[in-house]
Amino acid sequence: MNALGFIETKGLTGSIEAADAMLKAARVHLARRREIGSALVTVIVEGELGAVQAAVEAGAAAAERLGQLVSVHVIPRPFEDTENWLFPTPENDTPPRVPVADPSPLRPVSRKKSTASSRTKKATPKPAPVEVGRDDSAVVLELLRESQNGLTLEALTNQSGLEKKKVRLALKELLDSDRIEKVKNLYFPIDA
Q1: Are 37 and 13 a contacting pair, CB within 8 Å?
Q2: Which helix (H) or strand (E) holds 107?
Q3: Is this prediction's pTM over 0.70?
């Protein structure tokens, strides 16, 4: 589809007149008519861009003669999702299928005598929190001051030789103290 044309009118008569004028004026076809409520009706045509523009102009003039024109719009080369939203197909309306569990026969649960040791879980040690030293922040800030175009987290990690976690924490500390700023994925020093 090359283009979509929309004409919104107050009332059914204006929409019929607009649709008739659009179909006579250019090689387009009527895609849909939507009745919105409060007597508002939208007529949608589709076709090549030039034809849709000519058709919408003719339809707008016809609806305006009746005093029922509300708005007009042309969308050249609509995105596929826009088309799917405007013109839902049965494939688009059906919810995704949920896999059904395999109806295999159930097995009885064996009852073993449990001991206290089998019920307790082994404690897994949590990693120690990474602390940022003042020199980590200073290293990161110095690298940012040397760079004219800003640096990403990855570039700072590579150039500083520090762990990514330490660089990230240093950046957070510098951001919180308003010594650097972030634009998209680049970090820049703030010169005071």
Answers
A1: no
A2: none
A3: no
